[in-house]
Amino acid sequence: MNITLKIFYLILLFLSTFHFKAIAEPTLVRSKSVENVTGDYQTMALTFNNDGTKMYTSSMRAGATGDRLYEYDLTTAYNISTATLRTSINVGTYSGSSTNIHGAMQVVFNNDGTKMFIADHHKTIIEWTLTTPYDIDTASTTYNAGQGYDTNANQKRPSSVAFNNDGTKMFVTGNHKSGNPQSIHEYTLDNPFVIESGVTHVVEVQPDPQPDYIDGIVFNYDGTKMYITSSVDNKIKQYKLTTAFSISTLSLQGTLDLSNYSGLGNARETAFNSDGSKMFVIDQDAEVYEFDLTCNWSIIDGTCDDPITTSDGGKDILSSIESQTATAKQIAIQASTPVLNRMYWLRRHRNNDQLSNQNIRLNFSNSMVASLSNIIPISNKTNEVLDKLSDDWSFWSEGSVSIGRTGDTSTSSSKKINTKGITLGMDKKISKNRLYGYALRFGNDDVDVGTSGTNLDTESFSLSVYGTFPHDDEKFTEGIIGVSTLKTDHVRKGGGSTRTGERDGAQIFGSLNYLTTYKKEDFNITPNLRIDLSYTELSKYREKGPAALVYKAQTIETGMISTGFTISDILNFNTFTFKPNGGLELGVDFSPSSDATYRYLSETTEYTKSIDQDSKNLIANIGFDLITDNGFSIMTIYERNQSDNAHSDTLYIGFGYIPSDNNEYAMSLDNDKASLTYNKNLNGFDIRVNSNYNLMSSIPDYGATIELVSTF
Description:
The chain is mainly beta and 712 residues long. It contains four helices and 44 strands.
């Protein structure tokens, strides 16, 4: 029995290992037939422009003169199913050259597409000049006048050419005379992407073990990996370079057998998209194959690297992790700030009995116009029933919009941050200086990362309890404690690939603010000292898409101590009261770092990035209250938050109208129609006057109704 169980477990382990390996290999997505000259011609070259919207292939036959280079347009970057032929040029003959063995084995471009280099079958790397970047119709060469490099001394039959990132190194491979070993040659260039002169041969390397044939060579984005394609054994070999773009330091990591993929035979060249999540292979029979990789720049199991370090897209990954960490902190602050504003407003109006200062309703059904309601949100009318709920509850609302930006660094992409929110609250005045209340905030934080389309969209709901506790008439302690839920939709784009994921979060936060007021008539100055704390747990989640990542659960602890002051004044006029205010605050963030742990879906190796949160913030704000004698009021605050490498600008706005208890006003925008409603209760009857106007119609469209309603 024990022997049987052992055999069973060994078989199970073997099968699970086999399955894991199977899902870690490249996945064939699609193939695409490309142009080929009729006859015994074979397709050779394969490359893309810098953003994957153009693809280039070639067709050649030794001893013929009809060889051609083809340019395709891709309507979707790096999606070969969207490729259509745009143009082609002859590369089988050159003016002044008598040989018939020209032919484009591979084609590559410099960084801006104004130069094109062809690995020519006739012992030459030929340079072309393009007057329009990446447009081969504008390409020209003075090859016979020296616009090229003669490889005959080292390589008689070039099959491929590559450069390092800055064009100061060139690599050429090919096949010597019969019986000679296959090798790769490394050259230095005195001037970037200039091969007519200043080219020095550095080293010749014969890969170990020797490939049967070398058709193509290509590097990953930073030159720490190299890939050799062989048509004879139909395989791609992946090498690790311990020194970037130094082929003398290469070592074999593994081999991918392309014969495992139906229809793919005699592979000639290999290419990758810009972030290494896709691989493309062309065979000699005019077919291009597109693969999704399970991790960036790796076609072999167990050879993945930290995705943050594998391409420029890695900067987006780190920036996304930073954004999720920062958003959790900001949601706690955004939930507390409107409540602090409310308590500040109450202190300025503590002699008033009517504290529900926002009573006009705006309804938006147009989705684009609806976003404005987050900028100028206005609560429903506080009618007699609500005003008398639990005797003397007051109701309020506040909206905010914030626009911020964090600059890029050497390891992290820039971030554009847009935050919108509305807070609804109710509080009860216990005495002139003492109250408690509840607030509910609905928020949206939208962060655009980098320039490739990576985005994080976080919806949050926060519920808090608050109160103010006076020590005397001029000294107060204010407290807030609350909870939040978070839901983030994450879209990560790069190299024509899109990955999506959803993440949940839960948060508890609190704020304690001590302040004292110094008065001189109507002028007040109020120094304060505040501490803000929060604890957030983000759930684990996994992406869907090529080179998908899995993130473990993350905890985020934040703490900030702030000190500053606010000033306010009261200016009374004949028909209104104007109350300007402003403030300045310095915050010191003492939050510990938060560790984010992630891995490729296909791998078990985990990577951890520690996100620093400590910083110093300078916050300045200015605003005013305007109250008219007929009951109209407006409250607005503009706030600037500046830290070491980031800033945000936030606008808080609220409008209000305090009519008599029997009056109600409502204004609405319904798609293309604006309407205004007035409702007055008179001896148990509701008198309603409605007016509407079509905003978009070229023919004036007005409407008005009067209703008399009574409920029995």
